[in-house]
């Protein structure tokens, strides 16, 4: 899972804020697309493999019953030089693609499933992700045909 076309593939890594003050944070308002949402409780990077594994677990557990939205997309590259190479001589090759995730940002959303099914599905995904996450439900579910 990587972007199909990007102008600059080798980006600077950047840093995520480890301490976020209460005044600058926005409270997670709930699911946007679906009825249930899995959101992050801490800042960090999610590798494309984590996103793929979470998507695979949710698809296999939900089957054809529910709709799935992957809210995040890995569009930032992380480079790494091979072992045993001396310093200098340019930047290394792209090793993997990541997405920066902040506390309160949604990762996955699902719809058209019951509360028990959503609870079990998100418990399975939480074991696979490296970040601490929680899930929440919409207060008034939207009825669809």
Look at the structure and name the CATH superfamily of the domain at 43-81 and 92-137: Ribosomal protein L16/L10
Give the H and E element order: EEHEEEEHE
**Main beta sheet strand tally, sense and closure:** 4 strands, antiparallel
Return the average pLDDT rounded to an integer: 85
The number of helical segments is 2
* Widest sheet, order of strands: 3-6-1-7
Radius of gyration: 18 Å
Question: Roughly what percent helix?
Answer: 10-25%
- CATH topology of the domain at 43-81 and 92-137: the name is Aldehyde Oxidoreductase, domain 3
What spatial form do the alpha-carbon principal axes imply?
elongated
Structural class: alpha+beta
Give the percentage of residues in beta strands: 25-35%
Assign the CATH class of the domain at 43-81 and 92-137: Alpha Beta
What does this structure look like?
This protein is of the alpha+beta class and 145 residues long. The chain has a domain at 43-81 and 92-137: Ribosomal protein L16/L10 (Aldehyde Oxidoreductase, domain 3), CATH 3.90.1170. The chain has 2 helices and 7 strands. It has a 4-stranded antiparallel β-sheet, covered by helices on one side. Helix 1 (48-62) runs antiparallel to helix 2. The protein is elongated, with a radius of gyration of 18 Å. The relative contact order is 0.29. Mean pLDDT is 85; it is low at 21-25.
């Amino acid at each position: 899972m990587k972007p199909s076309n990007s102008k600059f593939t080798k980006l600077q890594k950047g840093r995520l804020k480890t301490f976020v003050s209460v005044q600058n944070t926005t409270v997670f308002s709930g699911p946007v697309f679906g009825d249930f949402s899995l959101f992050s409780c801490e800042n960090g990077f999610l590798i494309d493999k984590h996103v793929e594994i979470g998507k695979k677990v949710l698809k296999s557990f939900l089957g054809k019953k529910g709709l799935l939205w992957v809210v995040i997309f890995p569009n930032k590259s992380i480079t790494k030089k091979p072992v045993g190479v001396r310093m200098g001589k340019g930047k290394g090759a792209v090793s993997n693609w990541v997405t920066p995730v902040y506390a309160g940002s949604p990762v996955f959303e699902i719809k058209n499933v019951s509360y028990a099914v959503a609870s079990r599905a998100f418990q399975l995904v939480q074991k696979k992700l490296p970040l601490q996450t929680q899930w929440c439900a919409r207060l008034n579910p939207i009825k669809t045909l």
